[in-house]
Specification:
The protein is an alpha/beta fold. The chain has a single domain (2-198), classed as TIM Barrel (Alpha-Beta Barrel), CATH 3.20.20. The chain contains seven helices and eight strands, in the order βαβαβαβαβαβαβαβ. Strands 1-2-3-4-5-6-7-8 form an eight-stranded parallel sheet. The longest helix has 18 residues, at 104-121. The chain is globular, with a radius of gyration of 16 Å.
Length: 199
């Protein structure tokens, strides 16, 4: 049984054939598709798609590139959405020091608040990490994120960072980045135990 653990089916690039995309996925052996919000609006869209299609499930959260102006109402909206029966994770959340659309302190505070939410609602985390390995490990270890569980999506980093994430009992996924000509992820993929690897 295969599950697509990371999609964004609400992207407008799917507007013309979204239903056919989902249908083809199921016909070709996918048991389920998880579509993932990055802010309040897209999290609402993810939940709406999960309500419409039996094979679609949702994750809700505020992405680090979308957290510059986040407020209490946004967190409450995410919390409410997260209690929907077809929401299976808090995400996509984390840290992104490549785009830097929000200050580090804001990103860390937003991430920590959503980790706490995941603990309270007993949901795993879908985690975005870009160029933030040191702070990422610090936040994950200090917040005991492993108690919630989850995955570092589209994993990047070195073998040492991979091992530290595996020691926290978290999963990893490798996505399109392993196909890049300059990718050096081969050793990372080989060192990721199959039982901790998501598609």
């Amino acid at each position: 049984m295969l599950i697509d653990t990371h999609s964004h089916l609400y992207f407008d690039s799917f507007d013309e054939d979204r239903e056919l995309v989902i249908q083809r996925a199921i016909e070709n052996g996918l048991a389920a598709i998880i579509t993932i919000g990055t802010d309040v609006e897209t999290s609402k869209q993810a939940v709406a798609l999960a309500e419409k299609y039996a094979s679609v499930f949702a994750a809700v959260g505020i992405h680090p590139t979308d957290c510059a102006d986040v407020n209490d109402d946004d967190f409450e909206a995410i919390r409410t959405l997260a209690q929907h029966e077809k929401v299976i994770a808090i995400g996509e959340v984390g840290l992104d020091y490549y785009h830097m659309r929000a200050e580090k302190e804001v990103q860390i505070a937003t991430f920590n608040r959503q980790i706490k939410m995941a603990h309270e609602l007993k949901l795993p985390l879908i985690i975005h990490n870009r160029d933030s390995h040191e702070d990422m490990y610090k936040v994950l270890s200090e917040s005991e994120a492993s108690d919630a569980g989850g995955v570092l999506h589209s994993f990047s980093g070195n073998t040492e960072f991979l091992n530290s994430i595996l020691e926290l009992d978290l999963h990893v996924s490798f996505t399109g980045n392993i196909t890049f000509k300059k990718s050096d992820a081969d050793e990372l993929v080989k060192n990721a135990p199959l039982e901790r690897l998501l598609l």
